[in-house]
Amino acid sequence: MALDLPLSQLLPADWREGRFLGRIATQAGPTPILVEGGIAYDMSRVAPTVAQLVERLPLNAADGVALGSLDALADPLLSPIDLQCVKAAGVTFATSTLERVIEERARGDAGKALEIRARIEERVGGSIRSVVPGSVEAEALKELLIADGLWSQYLEVAIGPYAEVFTKAPVLATVGALEQIGVRSDSTWNNPEPEVVLLVNAAGQAVGATLGNDVNLRDMEGRSALLLGKAKDNNASCALGPLVRLFDDGFTIDDVRNAEVELLIEGPEGYRLEGHSSMNQISRDPLDLVAQTLSEHQYPDGFVLFLGTLFAPTQDRDHEGRGFTHKVGDVVSIATPRLGRLVNEVVTSKDAAPWTTGIAALYANLASRGLLGAAA
After folding, report:
1. pLDDT tens across 211-260, in order?
2. What residues does the Fumarylacetoacetase-like C-terminal domain cover (predicted)?
3. Cβ atoms within 10 Å, residue 120
4. Could you tell me which residues come within 8 angstroms of residue 210 by beta carbon, excluding any fewer than 6 positions away?
5. Which of 344, 105, 122, 307 lies closest to 218, judged by CA?
6. Residue 324 CB: number of other CB atoms within 10 A?
7. Beta bridge partners of 3
8. How would you label 32-53 residue by residue, b for 16+ Cβ within 10 Å and e otherwise?
């Protein structure tokens, strides 16, 4: 564990009222839990994985084994998902869209960003904030930008008919709250991406939400969009948690649409950066992003979908005009009242705990515990 914080500091303000899914690291192995009425229940005998539990919703807590009050759990939280695919939508907010264009124009050089930012913002900032992706107005704006020599592949997915949806991490590779999060050791320009993340079942229905950190390497992706995989998928580079809040009468997709996400970065040298992301500024509806993910594809174990971020830090850290980049030892906190607080400490991907529990290892563990007959 990278941090030593009580679980109570990570929980939503109304954690005793909501229903949540998650996983804990017991001595026997990873164990799915249901939280209802503030009590955590071991659901491994109902279904040995979160992916299988999701397909059994609505769940009956009485079918599980009560572990006690959630805030008093002795076992640490893991990432709240397991067999789900990990998908992410990019450039879904105007501000972060412009930052992607800036990265592209700067070819990944943070020192060039300030001048380019001013020029791009002056020319397209207002237009891109008001246009509806895929609309007639968006197409007209595209033609104007092409004529001005300002068109970009990022603007294509920001205002065109098709969203950017990519695979962020392999199955089982995500880390949870209080675990270390990794940044490539050869990256010199990077940042966290605080996001709301939807949990979607095999039928394509959004059943809940959690918080996520889709770590971004601005220098890598800025050099070439073909480096997206190198920029996004590295050891420990994707955090989720603390728990998935299930949709019910008290928490719906409208709570996601209107969520206010807070970001805090505390550096080892005393540096402090605060950010704020309003989900109501998203350019595409969350359920439209789910539908685009499902277009001509199936996910029999379900998936999670990062919805993108408004936050793109430009506050200088060490050098004027070079903006923000991570340092080893940064503590990143992402929070919203209904989903809780996701906290991780930054290390390099080389130094983060290696990912060793893949699908084969998980099923070997479940078999040794006699759990594979728990769900078909």
Report:
1. 999 999 988 988 888 888 999 999 999 999 999 999 999 999 999 999 99
2. 207-347
3. 20
4. 80, 196, 197, 199, 240, 241, 242, 243, 244, 245, 304, 339, 342
5. 105
6. 22
7. none
8. bbbbbebbbbbbbebbbbbbbb
* Residues with Cβ within 8 Å of residue 241, at least 6 apart in sequence: 10, 22, 77, 79, 80, 176, 177, 210, 211, 340, 342
pLDDT, one tens digit per residue, over 140-165 is 777 766 776 666 777 777 778 888 99
- Quote the pTM value: 0.89
Q: 305 with 207: CB under 8 angstroms? A: no
Residue bearing tokens 């991780």: 344
What span, in angstroms and rounded, lies between the C-alpha atoms of 265 and 275?
A: 9
pLDDT band at 374 (very low <50, low <70, confident <90, very high): low
- Which sequence spans correspond to the domains of the chain? 7-92+163-368, 94-159
CATH T-level assignment (fold) for domain 7-92+163-368: Fumarylacetoacetate hydrolase; domain 2 (3.90.850)
Residue 271 DSSP code? -
